[in-house]
Hints:
- 30% of the residues lie in helices and 22% in strands.
- It has helices spanning 34-85, 135-140, and strands at residues 2-4, 9-11, 89-94, 99-104, 121-122, 128-132, 142-145, 154-159, 166-170, 178-180.
- A four-stranded antiparallel beta sheet has the order 5-4-3-7.
- The mean pLDDT is 79.
Amino acid sequence: MVNLLATGVTMHAKPQAAGSRGFRGFRGGRGFTLLELVLVMFVAALMLAMALPALRPFLAAREASGAAGELVAMTRLARSLAVSEARVYRLHVDETEGEFWLSHDELEEGEALPVPVARPMELPRDVTAVWHASASTQMRGYVRFYPNGRCDPTTFELAGARGEPVFVASRAMHEAYAIRSAEAVGGTGEVW
């Protein structure tokens, strides 16, 4: 019995049945055993392993998109540095190694900028790059970014192992590089 506020009101607590829920949680109930938890984790891992081959094209396309985003960021950095420092910057392209790096016209031919300014970019292992450029630009091996904000127009086509190609392009000297659809670059990635 409980006496409330010395008013003479008394309450009787009802006993709870064994195994019923009270305000303190489960009484007499059991949780999951370690064996049950391991079995559930095994089944989940097995289902993920069966679904992984179907996800590979999606993951490959994501790698190409991520690399395209990095390439766009590198072109924006080159353009920004060219304008702010009033010098020509170059985005060097090595299709065979899948590498891109920045330099400017005061460095020796092909020498990369110091890492804190712009680290060289390497494509992921399953991503390939095709550079669609004019003959003179491709022969030079780099794209120029000028102090007046202009750049050499060209198109880069990046593709994962089984993914759709992603295009990074600038269609005109005054236009910034951006990720473009196949339709926007003429379906083939050829330079305009």
